[in-house]
Amino acid sequence: MKMRRELYIDGKWLRPIKGGTCPVINPATEEVIGAIAAATEEDVDIAVKAARRAFDRDGWPKLSGSQRATYLRAIADGIRARQAEIARLEVLDNGKPFPEADWDIADAAGCFDFYAGLAEQLDHHPEETIPLADDRFTSKAVREPIGVAGAIIPWNYPLLMAAWKVAPALAAGCTVVLKPAELTSLTALELAAIADEVGLPAGVLNIVTGAGSVAGQAIIDHKGVDKLAFTGSGPVGSRIMAAAARDIKRVSLELGGKSPFVVFDDADIEEAVEWIMFGIFWNQGQVCSATSRVLVHEAIYERLLGRLVDETNKIKIGNGLDEGVLLGPLVSKRQYEQVTAAIEAARQAGATVVCGGTRPEGFDRGYYLRPTILTDVPLNSDAWVEEIFGPVVCIRPFKTEEEAVELANESRFGLAAAVMSNDEVRAERVAAAFRAGIVWINCSQPTFTEAPWGGYKESGIGRELGRWGLDNYLETKQITKYVGKSSWGWYIKQEAAE
Ligand code: NAD
């Protein structure tokens, strides 16, 4: 598959005006395997203007939902038709094991299909009648696309995060300028190629690659953008919200977390170990919803920890393209340095590294780190409080349900939380007590396109996926009609008019 190094703007592949590039580095080998275009403000301006024309003049929002759905389904088919190739590209760019990448790409296609279905439903329920107490009026609410959406995404699920934003935005009738993360832009460029092949009208989807501080900043500052949709870190999320505040742009944010996983003593230990591992080692722990704080009832703590360490030490580490690998390299040198620094800081704060914490033996190159389990982590230390965004889990015992819930909720984040218990009533009670936007019972991480996704507290604003994801890109307009039998008669009295 050819690596693209241009920007996709207004249905054309364009070189960036200033000609800059960013290197593409394979995190498994540290080799430079290509380059992407580094867009600047000038390129972003052309892209936003193209999206504006497609929205204001060329009629994308005027198409019926079913017509837009045809394009979305064609994109889904296009992704599936080259699923393995795109998954391979994702591995080269991001480092994740191939089966995970393959799953992501299938999910991305499914996301386009799902929003095609919701686009069709917009035709079936174009308006909602609002019953009014005053029978001199009728009123209805109609939903219309917001306009041009500026979408900015992170590097951990490159194509999937693009799909989570592009699919609902196009379904709603918005046009899009998308900026993928500079570390992982290759599959978003493939999405552009597929959109082009299926004949998506020019300007409806524009993809600009480049640095966040340059191309990203230009999108969030552009007056022609009506809505900002962002997934990424808290500090950048704050900047985006501030930029949105200046122009009263609509904004939705999906930020980080430090999500808890509470395991009660009636849980099956083998099941618990499996889900704890899935909750933190999947995608090398570079998952916003990773359950990185595990609380285990003291009655089973030692036994569970022993099994967790055994199984964690067995995880096959390696190049994501190699057979049987379940843990690839971290995405970049910077990420590797940040995660290893966080482990060292935890050690300094008094935590015990019971397994991992170092490079695996035999790996001289690549950003590889052994999966890491920390115990005795002080509750006020960064390791317990801050997102590490790597394969690092903190685990501690608890005595009572009350204590577990309190510890779980003691965080400025509120993205996700998980509970494991064979007592259904208890599991539901704890699920209700969690202050988090996503709660898993007897599992951790499974994510469904149909269900709402997003965080409480500093983990974000708004919800993606499901019908909530479509709402992110729609305005609501009320249309009220006067049907009274006589004149309104406030200024012009009926007698005077006669
Ligand atoms: P990041 O915030 O550094 O970057 C995210 C995106 O923002 C990138 O495309 C980047 O180029 C862009 N960006 C950076 N500075 C910008 C600026 N000034 N203006 C506009 N855009 C700018 O985050 P990251 O390091 O790519 O991703 C990791 C973070 O993302 C983690 O904190 C993680 O929790 C979070 N995340 C959250 C979710 C979720 O669904 N809640 C999903 C994935 C990742």
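^ nicotinamide-adenine-dinucleotide complex. The chain is about 40% helix and 20% strand. Residues 197 and 343 are 46 Å apart (CA to CA).
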